Every structure is written in C-alpha cells, then in structure tokens.
C-alpha cells in the first residue's frame, strides 16, 4: 500500500488504492462502506495559498495540511480526510503576487458547508483544523454552531497552536531563531516533504526582511528538523481528537 506521503505528493487519485484515507481517492460506495465499517470521523483541514518568501512555494500550507490530514487519519484508524481547502484569510500578504485572500465569513461558510456535507454522509464526528493562523477563530465558531446538530463537530487547534509552542520552545533551547513566517519551522517541514525538490528554492534561502516577506532565517532549516516538527503536530492533533471524541 502506498505511504501517505507518496499519495500526497503524487496527486494521482486514480492510482490510489481503496484503502486510502483520502475521500477524494474513493468512490461513494467505498466511502459509505468505510463509514459503516467504523471510519466515523471526518477530518477537514484548511491550508492557504500565500507568499512564503523567494525560497518557498505559495502552496506550502496546502502540502503540509494534506500530509498532516493523512497521517492523523491513519494514526486514528477510524477517520477519513476531506480535500484540503487551499485558501484562507491572508490579508497581510496581499501585496505579494499569488497570494489568495478569503474573508473570515467566506472561509467559515466553506468550512460549515463541508462539515454539513460530512454530517449528511453519515460521519458521527467532524474535526475542523487549520494549518494557517488566519481563520482559526472562524473554524472555532463553525464548530460551536454545528456541534450536536446531527453529529459532533470539534475544533481541534493543538496541531497548530500547541505544536507551534512546543516547536518554538525546542528552537529557543538550542539558541535557534524563532521566526513568524517562512523561517526555520515551516521551511524545514516543507523540506522534509519536498522529495522531488520542486517547492523549495535552495539557492534563494536568505535571512528574512520586510521586503522578502520572510520573518526568520530559513537558512538554518533542514529536512531532519522538518520531520521532527511534523511528528509533533501529528501527535498533538491525534491526542486532542482522541480526547475530544472519547469524551463525547
């Protein structure tokens, strides 16, 4: 069976096996059977299309979110992942070409209607997650509004906020610079996933400044750090989902 990473990177759903945790890879009878067989949790992950400096592709958050969604679904064993929403509120980056901005209202409306679709499909739990800082409160509000209306709807933030705190604490203890955008953390994560070397421009790695759109120093990033950081996010997300779903 292909690994989650190969499925995310290949973007070839026609070649995926029926056992895939990605709903987009399955037929509707396969989704129905998976739910009947116990995969009753749906994962909705939002990414973002935004500038990430001269060294990193705008789809960074989408690649990372897809990887996290698949890995978390596999770790849970009872979940399927919906396609990643590739857009989010990103207003502060609009001066950089290629960035896409959604209002909180539009972002929340999409999350709400996907969640309602998951409920209609028969999922008992719907998990809303975001890989990008913008829109987190909108996801929280959608979960609050829909919870208990046909299914339990959970806002799960730990794979973003709690994991981010742990990653930054790790960097500080090793006297490495903590950046706010496109620095060591997310550059390392994408380096780990960038097996075909198409998303990172290694010759463009440079200390960040306002002109470049980078806050931090991606020159110190590595695939090894990226794997560690992604594992921290996966563990945090799985733990919170198990806690929330188990309690209810």
Could you describe the 3D structure shown?
- The chain has 248 residues and is α/β, with parallel strands linked by helices.
- It has a single domain, classed as Creatininase (Rossmann fold), CATH 3.40.50.10310.
- Helices cover 44% and strands 8% of the residues.
- It has helices at 4-10, 28-36, 60-76, 104-121, 136-146, 161-173, 184-193, 223-247, and strands spanning 41-46, 79-81, 125-130, 152-155.
- It has a four-stranded parallel β-sheet, with helices on both faces.
- Helix 1 packs antiparallel against helix 3, helix 3 (60-76) packs across helix 8 (223-247) and helix 7 crosses helix 8.
- It is globular and about 50 Å long.
Short description:
This protein is 44% helix and 8% strand.
Number of helices: 8
Structural class: alpha/beta
* Rg over CA atoms: 18 Å
| pLDDT < 50 runs, ≥5 residues | 10-18
CATH architecture classification: 3-Layer(aba) Sandwich
Shape: globular
Keywords:
248 residues; single chain; 4 strands; 8 helices; Rossmann fold
Topology (elements, then pairings):
Blueprint lengths: L3 H7 L17 H9 L4 E6 L13 H17 L2 E3 L22 H18 L3 E6 L5 H11 L5 E4 L5 H13 L10 H10 L29 H25 L1
Parallel strand pairs: 1-2, 1-3, 3-4
Helix pairs in contact: 1-3, 3-7, 3-8, 4-5, 6-8, 7-8
């Amino acid at each position: 069976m292909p690994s989650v990473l190969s499925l995310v990177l290949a973007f070839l759903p026609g070649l995926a096996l029926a056992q895939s945790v990605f709903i987009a890879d399955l037929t509707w009878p396969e989704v129905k059977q998976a739910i009947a067989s116990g995969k009753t949790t749906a994962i909705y992950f939002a990414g973002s299309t935004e500038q990430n400096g001269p060294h990193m592709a705008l789809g960074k958050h989408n690649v990372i979110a897809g990887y996290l969604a698949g890995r978390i679904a596999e770790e849970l064993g009872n979940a399927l992942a919906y396609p990643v929403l590739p857009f989010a509120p990103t207003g502060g980056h609009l001066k950089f070409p290629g960035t896409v901005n959604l209002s909180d209202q539009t972002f929340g409306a999409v999350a709400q209607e996907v969640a309602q679709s998951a409920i209609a499909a028969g999922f008992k739990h719907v998990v809303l997650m975001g890989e990008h800082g913008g829109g987190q409160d909108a996801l929280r509000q959608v979960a609050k509004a829909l919870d208990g209306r046909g299914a339990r709807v959970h806002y799960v933030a730990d794979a973003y906020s709690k994991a981010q705190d742990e990653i930054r604490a790790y960097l500080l203890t090793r006297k490495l610079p903590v950046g706010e955008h496109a620095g060591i953390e997310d550059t390392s994560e994408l380096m780990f996933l960038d097996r075909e070397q198409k998303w990172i421009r290694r010759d463009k790695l440079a200390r960040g400044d306002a002109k470049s759109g980078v806050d931090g120093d991606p020159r110190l990033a590595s695939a090894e750090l990226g794997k560690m950081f992604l594992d921290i996010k996966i563990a945090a997300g799985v733990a919170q989902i198990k806690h929330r779903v188990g309690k209810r």
